[in-house]
Amino acid sequence: MSNPRPVADREIQRILALVPWLVAHPGVQKSEVRERFQLSEAQLERDLELMLMVGVPPYTPGDYIDVDDDGDTITLRMADSFRRPPRLTAPEGLAVLAAGRALVAVPGSDTDGPLATALLKLSAALGNPDVDVSIGEPEYLSVIRAAVETAHEVELDYWTASRDVVTTRRVQPTTVFFAEGQWYLEAFCHAANDDRLFRVDRIRAAHTTEIRFRAPAEYELRDALYQPRDADPTFALTVDPAHRWVGEYYPTEAIEDLDAGYQRIVLRVSELAFLERLVLRLGAGVTVECLSGASEFSGAWSAARVLSRYGA
Fold this sequence. Notes:
single chain, 312 residues, alpha+beta, SH3 type barrels, Alpha-Beta Plaits, five-stranded antiparallel β-sheet, globular
């Protein structure tokens, strides 16, 4: 069984931003929606299917969001029950205000639309509390965005956290997106001769070159930050009942329930440093078996290496 949680988190955030914008723009062209929210055609169709499942008790046909999709345009209508104003306590209202402002900060959201207007009214009802929610922009984000738009190659000085090294790479930037609290660049890296994902805040320098490249006509945005490759090492982690959250939090290849609440979780890793940190965090609650690609890995060796830094 694969792990849907990282994908679901991103989809929910995006859909929460999509819904009020679509309600305010009935009959909008799908092409406009895809361009505004940086969605592929397949992603938009999945989002629309999920919206059809959003409703409130008792979940009768009239209690769900109505999506009118004629193939080229979309019209979204809220169920009548959504029109009833909710009664909130002050702490609940403050939580809604903070969450709403975070959604308005999602790229593609309408900063002057109905959600923003409702937040102004809610803020006034709460006495205009000092709640400021924004998505910060890393230093070189504007440089990367411009290179994506013009299809120019970029030379990067990039810090790789897992190895604590800074390397210089020449890349063809494909897309920039915000996910799980960070800005990311997906690009073809000449050094790796493959597509790679870069956290924009870890870029130490960025220089746009004069070299142009052919940008793809339509780009399929990734559903998760980590997309396993065939060459990535595969491990089986047997975790005790207290650490079953590992299978819910990380992308997995398979999960098997064992006796006494234990689980056997199969996953791929792109960097052994990630697995080292995870194993040290779980401590005695995990045993590790290498299935392919990195038979030299040892949790005990990793622990000994960390202890050596403390003189132990």
